Amino acid sequence: MSATLAEKHGIITEAGTIVFERILPGPIERVWEYLTDSEKRGRWLASGPMEPRVGGKAELFFKNCDLSPVKEPTPERFKATDQGFTVHCEITEWQKPHRLSYLFGNDGSEVTFDLKPKGHEVVLTLTHRKLPNREVSLNFSGGWHTHLGILIDHLGGETTRPFWSTFQGHYKEYEARIPN
């Protein structure tokens, strides 16, 4: 996977909405499993049960410090998350293996993953809508960028990049990209 594709920045399409696109090794069913299977999703994002239907519940247990074999200190502002945290979600779309959407926690935002086959690859488009303010947008922009990079590492059979230093770098990039 080229570094350019793996590091392509998310695009703010309107206030409170960021969109990422990545080209992943297929097939599409494999990528779908990395979105919906707790164990596989837990390698790059967050583990936890997910009911495979519209209206179903999902629990995403995040423990970012465990996503890479490279151990590094958690930034001070995220120390409270060292032991992990759970976000409760509700599935709003389930179109296996093409589209998954869910309401993310209680903040009113919505995450959508669209998958489209492209030869032996899969185009993944991630859209996070209804982000309430710039600080939340910065955290999710840096976070999704980092998590998607770790997904690419897993799908490509590579050692996963360290989470926190990668996140910190992306966060700074988005501070310069997302207007006040």
Provide a descriptive summary of the structure in words:
The protein has 180 residues and is α+β, with helices and mostly antiparallel strands. It has a single domain (3-177), classed as START domain (Alpha-D-Glucose-1,6-Bisphosphate, Chain A, domain 4, 2-Layer Sandwich), CATH 3.30.530. It contains 5 helices and 7 strands, in the order αββααβββββαα. The protein has helices spanning 3-6, 28-36, 38-44, 134-155, 163-177; strands at residues 11-14, 17-25, 57-62, 85-95, 99-104, 109-118, 121-129. The termini are far apart. 27% of the residues are buried.
Characteristics:
single chain, 180 residues, Alpha-D-Glucose-1,6-Bisphosphate, Chain A, domain 4, 7-stranded antiparallel β-sheet, 5 helices, 31% strand, disordered N terminus
Task: Pick out the low-confidence regions.
Answer: 1-5
Judged by helices, strands and strand pairing, the structural class is: alpha+beta
Helix coverage percent of residues?
A: 25-40%
Total number of helical segments? 5
Strand content: 25-35%
How many structural domains can be distinguished in the coordinates? 1
Let me know the number of strands: 7
CATH architectural label:
2-Layer Sandwich
User: Which fold name corresponds to the CATH topology?
Assistant: Alpha-D-Glucose-1,6-Bisphosphate, Chain A, domain 4
What is the end-to-end distance? Answer: 33 Å
CATH class bucket: Alpha Beta
CATH homologous superfamily assignment: START domain
Shape: globular
Average pLDDT level = 94
How many strands, which pairing sense, and closed or not: the largest β-sheet? 7 strands, antiparallel
Strand order of the largest sheet: 1-2-7-6-5-4-3
